[in-house]
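#lab-general

N.A. 3:47 PM
ok so I finally got the sequence cleaned up, no stray characters, all 84 residues accounted for. can someone with queue access submit it? mine expired

B.Y. 3:52 PM
send it over

N.A. 3:53 PM
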Amino acid sequence: MEVLSGYRLKVGFRDKLSGIVDMQAFVRSKDAGVFSRLQDEQLFAKARISYGAVVWPEEGGQPALDLAPDAMHKAISQAGTWIL
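B.Y. 4:20 PM
back already:
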């Protein structure tokens, strides 16, 4: 996994599928909920893989965040990009 500019991630799976996760519109939307914290580019850059999922650490008393790898894989296999 690689953190890219514009709130995007380049991800790869064990089956060799790879693509982009684009979170730019989502993290800035009114529906982002807890994911609005990721507007902080320094926090967004802390994305890591843990047990096959993209995760962000706890921050300032806020719980850790993660993305569903199955939904990510499905969207990328269909379109090459998962736009949240």
